[in-house]
Design goal:
Two copies of one chain form a homodimer.
Chain A lengths: L13 H10 L7 H13 L2 H17 L1 E2 L6 E2 L13 E8 L2 H10 L4 E5 L17 H10 L4 E4 L5 H14 L5 E4 L15 H9 L9
Helix pairs in contact in A: 1-2
């Protein structure tokens, strides 16, 4: 029947096509998943489509960034920075909001954060001035910070950024630390990569310090 | 530091939390992917959030279903049913819109469709009256259909629905067919499941008929 085929656009509806196109711009979402989402929205009560779009538009238009730590926030000062029970003299430097959420989930840190908004990456044209590093230096200089914890990704770019920050603040604060790298809890040694295993041997701790 | 931990809600922003919650209701989307999507929307121009939400709300509120084939449509008669070049006397019966899209992509079918909106599934409380089967029977009775192609999923529910439809229309039309089941093109025989391979042997074709 090939010769009798009459071409049509892919979706029987322009509205559906438009929704699929917009949804498939989201990261990790292909056309097939986008179609599944669009059909789900069609099956749900129209309240869901309303709530979802309101949530997204409000998020995009009303979001603030904390004046102090640059984390995503609903107001000029984020919940963490405005919480007086947090240790304001210990700053944990992270790449983005997801790292803040991940560290908060551990419930092991009660200091405050500084969100860089990225790491130094010349290949992507990201230099120190595109990040919030100068504000971090100002905070460390003015606020008598006790400790700066560098919690950036263990990549070349993360290490470069660590080193750059270290050079800029080492004369301003007494203690600069980085998070521990090593074999993850629950992992078998034989499956750990060589570099991680190597580092975890070099940076071994007195047994009494571990829990 | 565990004892000094001061609890916070998971996301530093209620707006972000709300967007993540709404996004994670979509099928196949967990909290982590939803967060990634929300942060992507924040990084994009605000025009994207506007376009996406407009597309979703319009989809939900303005979509129609074709009066004739029940496919998703922008108007009372879908593009396929209103295209006079299509063979209106050959109806392909499918479960939902995704099947129409998949068959259209093959460019091997120039007839029209009938979208059931599901298959008979007593476990989920879906009986013949919840589907568009009675309208299909009416179409077959009134429109002098030449052929009805049953293209439902190869599941117990699909087979039940096939049989139900067959019983209801077998006295009304001359030809009722189902799509071929067999070893997929490009597949090795040894990896095909037994039932599929068995059916493809039983339903073998004269060599000259294959291409």
């Amino acid at each position: 029947m090939r010769e009798n085929y009459i071409g049509l656009n892919e979706y029987s509806s322009k509205l559906l096509e438009n929704a699929v196109n917009e949804l498939s711009r989201l990261p990790g979402i292909g056309k097939r998943t986008a179609l599944r989402m669009a059909l789900f929205i069609l099956k749900e009560d129209s309240l869901y489509a309303d709530n979802l779009s309101k949530a997204l538009v409000t998020l995009r238009n009303d979001i603030c960034f904390c004046e102090r730590c640059h984390n995503i926030s609903d107001s000029d000062l984020c919940e963490i920075c405005s919480n007086h029970k947090r240790d304001e003299l210990t700053i944990c430097v992270v790449e983005d909001t997801r790292d803040v959420i991940a560290i908060e989930k551990t419930t092991q840190f009660s200091g405050v954060y500084h969100v860089l908004g990225g790491v130094i990456n010349p290949m992507e044209g990201l230099g120190p001035n595109d990040l919030t590093i100068s504000h971090l230096i100002k905070r460390v200089a003015e606020e008598q910070i006790k400790e700066v914890i560098l919690a950036l990704p263990a990549t070349v770019e993360g290490d470069t950024t660590n080193y750059y920050i270290y050079k800029m603040i080492s004369h301003l604060t007494t203690k600069i630390t980085t998070i521990a790298r090593g074999v993850a809890i629950g992992d078998e040694l034989q499956y750990a990569d060589e570099i991680t295993l190597g580092r975890s041997i070099v940076n071994r701790l007195p047994f009494a310090q571990t829990r």
